[in-house]
Amino acid sequence: MAVHMYLSLIPEALIASMLEPEEFGTYYAVGTEKKSRGQAIFFEIDPKFRSELFRIEEALERCVPHDDGSPKRSIYIAIYRVLENIPLKAIQKLYLTTQDGRTLGIEPTAKLPKEENGLHLYREVSPVPPLVVSTLGPKSFYELIVKSPTSLVKVPAICFAELRLGNLATDPLHGDVGDLPYSNMEHLRKCLVDLKTKSVSTKMVDRLPTSGIPYRTIKNGFFVGNEEKLIHFPLPDEKELVEKHYRWWRSATM
Amino acid sequence: MEQLWLYIGIGAGILSLGVAVILYFWVLRQDDGNDRTREVAGWIRKGAASYLKRLYLALTLVAVVLSFVIAIVFSFDLTAIGNGSADVRPINGFIMAVAFIAGSLCSAVAGYMGMAVAVHANVRSAVGVSDNLNKGFRIAFYAGSVMGLAMVGLAVIGMCLIFLLTGNPEIVLGFSFGASALALLAKAGGGIYTKTADIAADLVGKVEVGIPEDDPRNPAVVADNVGDNVGDVAGMGADIFDSYVASTVAAMLLGFAIGGPDQLKYTIFPLILCTLGIFASLVGIQFVRVGKDGKPGNALNFGTIATTVIFSILVALLVIFGGYDFSVLWSTLIGLVTGVVIGFTTEFFTSEDFKPVLETAKVSDSGAAITIITGFSYGLLSIFPSIIGIAVATLGSFYISQASEAVTGIYGIGISAVGMLSISGMIVSSDAYGPIVDNARGIAEMAGMKHEVIERADVLDSAGNTAKAITKGFSISAAALTVLALFAAYSEVIEARGVSVEISLRSPLVVAGVWLGAMAPPIFSALTMLSVTHNAFEMIEEIREQFREKPGILAGTELPDYEKCVRLAAQGALSSLILPAFLAVGLPLLVGFLLGPDALGGFLGGAIFTGVIFALLMANAGGLWDNAKKYIETGQFGGVGSDAHKAGVVGDTVGDPFKDTAGPSLNTLITVMSLVSSLFAPLIAAFHLF
Predict the structure, then answer these.
(1) Which sequence spans correspond to the domains of chain A?
(2) Chain A neighbors of B639, CB-CB under 8 A
(3) B164-197 residue pLDDT tens
(4) pLDDT tens digits for range A9-18
(5) d(CA B338, CA B395)
(6) Shortest alpha-carbon distance between residue A230 and chain B (Å)
(7) Where are the domains of chain B?
């Protein structure tokens, strides 16, 4: 049985496992006797990746089948500040697992989405998970947080998703909310209006969102970047999700 | 000539039954898909069969006990009880007991046929819809027609045959009581079963674990699908069978009370209306086809309207050429039109195209409490058009008939109830279509069919929900008119024994009776809804335990124990019926024997008025909450996962036992109470404490 390495983002952890990505997603989301449950987001890491910061070999030696032949599900190699210590070239695929264990794999692309006019809503995933609105597109937002030497708020690496704002992106005051499921919509509107009326480029909407990331509201996928570069993991459009990944999409729209 | 109509009635019943059998085998000949679809459908079929086996066993016991009681009670000839004499004639008791058993049996057979075809049609409709929408629709509708046609066929055969053999409409009352007793247990039991499974499956599956509707990993998913059949096919079928027979027999009794040379003519007239209703339904069913617009709802509505028009023409021809008084034509038409109008106005309060649902969905953003208050308030308002309709039908049919010299005013009310229910063949066909397509959608999901198939099944399902809502409004209104006629029949039966009945609010006994009667529907509702919560609580624990003990279920590597949830739902539903059944049968007798016939009259009045109001409120508020949630799920007010949606889910869950357990069972409750009172009226007239 091959041993895989996964970088979980909720919570941030490097894990060795004998499970295939889909099986790992299910295990991670629906739990076993340990009752760990909920949405999971993780990257598959190049199995050849090694770093002095992580005791990978030791973990791999422990990652062997159980006595009954069943695969070892997880050996935690590291927790806390993992993303910033993994080079982006070691990151392979991104997996999004729904709360009931359906997993979707997304390939990375070097191409970033076209910058659009209007406001943006970002849900940071790692290292901290706030909900933020911004006047900046994904690339500029990443640069502000990770690369800008003038910014007070700076992290060595970040993973975030851009969420749909619908009509609020261009008309925060009167725009129709449509099917946006965000709680406290009036507060969101106010934050967006502030971006238009005050000289700020970002504003925090929610410090610690209690629910997971509503996959159905993801606009153009996930972004992961460090000081080296930014990678984009585009989420397929709704038509493709319905046609090719119906089970995942149905769970994601619960 | 009247005798001939009885033979024609029996012939029409046989024809209806024959067409039902032909459609049954036509459905069975359709493709049932692959091993997986067959396996999933097999789970549902097995679960439904196991519930029906338990239900019918319990019903057999009840029927045997009640038939012995009836045989003993009616062995006393109480015709001249007012004069203080009573002979013993065991043959009378025997005949009444046989009529009672026949009524129970016909209702059971109709329900069984409906269920039997539904559990085969669900998978075939799912497979059919994978070819095209029309094919899936046709299979589901024809399967629903098996229930509709079998029901009216058996009812008409039974009533005509008994009247032909005995010439006494009071014996037909025994037939009706048999049908109603079974209907009450089937409807309340089915309602408790279906909502126990539905609520438990949703609360653990959707809310706690986050798995979608009809996901095969949910241990309660099969029980949920079985519940659709036992609640909405067998239960609703039994409910309408009961109203259909009760309204006919009430009108027959009132026709019999007219006396004179036209006594037989107007006693049989309700049976002739049922016969014409069968012919109209048989033709009307042919009009149900999905047109180029691809809207199954329109096809069902068109079938109902076509049946109504055909029936109206047939009745007009009958009255003109049969020498009947024109007042009976107007009474029939008043009932028919009122039924259809009330059915469709129900849609105003439960459809997402109108203000009540839209406003309830909108305010859900402010939390579940506001959702509940708004939905409940609109549920209360929804009483208005139906009550106005019932009042107009009551007054219109009464005064038109009263003005004629041939019949009495109260007979007109009875005829308007029969008019409303005479197209039941078509109404039940549309109604039974609903749970079949609901199941088809579930099977498509569980069997992993393509998303296009599920989307098409969704379209069929949506039309089924609307048909269900219309049928509920229709059946509640029909039950209201039926019990008004039975109420009058009760007085006629008592007065025929030389005992005068005076139901005046100046009498303390009557007032006490009104209070006790008014109390019965709310108590009955509470008992059935508490049964749902108690049983759902047990099932929730079972589902949680299965998820806890078998982690492979959620991972998709292990099958849940569906059978256990099916068993829990069945046991819970049947054991919960004892108290409600006593309330329906025991309480009127207790009031009658203790407080006397006047108080029992007051009791019936109280029960009828609160029963109809509660039934309308619960059915409409429940439907409204359900559709408000569905409307939010289409992406409005934040869509799925939003605060509005969470509040909508709470509203829907509260509304579930309202609309599918307590609400629809109240029709049957008030009918059973009225029938018990009428049936035992001679005995109560003879023996009462006050």
Answers:
(1) 4-106, 120-233
(2) 178-181, 216
(3) 999 888 899 899 989 888 888 888 899 999 999 9
(4) 988 999 999 9
(5) 12
(6) 30
(7) 2-197+216-686
